[in-house]
Design goal:
The chain is of the alpha/beta class. The chain contains 9 helices and 6 strands; from the N terminus they run E-E-H-H-E-E-E-H-H-H-H-E-H-H-H.
């Protein structure tokens, strides 16, 4: 998977890069324009975990992919009044088009993008699930490389994430969400949320 180089490194270096990107977004640039010609880093050739929550003192000494940080900073800027709702909605829609940005929305610190459910269930939940399904094979190929701030890693499904948050708010049971993915994968669990019948449970 290719991730913008701005997100790779030590947290203390990645955070100001993400803040600069948010400043560009606040000036009216699109997500793609803000990222611009930023080089990407191939996760297959660089060490480090795919970090979905932070900052964490456990991860301070080595470079990692801080996948959650830009989308966290975007929401922070919205709360502070530096980005308006229309800008954030445009960023959300653009984020669904690329693997790295969808992963940023999957990070549990991005749950604020989908809360409260009564506001976003009808507009953001299904597009987000569709994007997750589109890129899920890529995310799974990373294996047990994801971190929620710990110095031990796990696979993406087993960590707190917004996919399970969304599915829970769509009526999927806790038992299903706490279990390993079935043979039908994420698609089988999403089918339950959309009213399908997955027989693997």
């Amino acid at each position: 998977m290719h991730i913008p180089s701005s997100f790779y490194g030590l947290y203390r270096d990645v955070k100001p890069r993400c803040r600069r990107l948010v400043t560009n977004l606040a000036r009216g640039e699109s997500l793609n324009d803000a990222i611009g010609t930023d080089d990407t880093v191939d996760t297959a050739t660089q060490p480090g975990m795919l970090v979905l929550e932070g900052p964490s003192p456990l991860l301070g000494g080595e470079p990692h992919f801080h996948c959650y940080l830009l989308h966290f900073q975007i929401k922070k800027a919205q709360f502070e009044g530096r980005l308006n709702a229309d800008m954030v909605e445009e960023i959300f829609n653009a984020s669904l088009q690329t693997e790295w940005a969808v992963l940023g929305l999957i990070a549990y610190q991005s749950a604020m993008w989908f809360d409260p459910p009564e506001k976003w269930r009808s507009t953001r939940y299904q597009p987000m699930l569709k994007a997750c399904l589109q890129f899920w094979d890529t995310f799974e190929r990373e294996g047990e490389r994801y971190s929620a701030g710990s110095n031990t890693s796990n696979n993406l499904w087993n960590l707190p994430n917004t996919i399970r948050y969304i599915l829970a708010n769509m009526g999927v049971s806790k038992a299903v969400l706490k279990a390993p993915l079935p043979a039908t994968g994420l698609a089988g669990v999403v089918a339950l949320a959309l009213g399908g019948d997955d027989q693997s449970y």
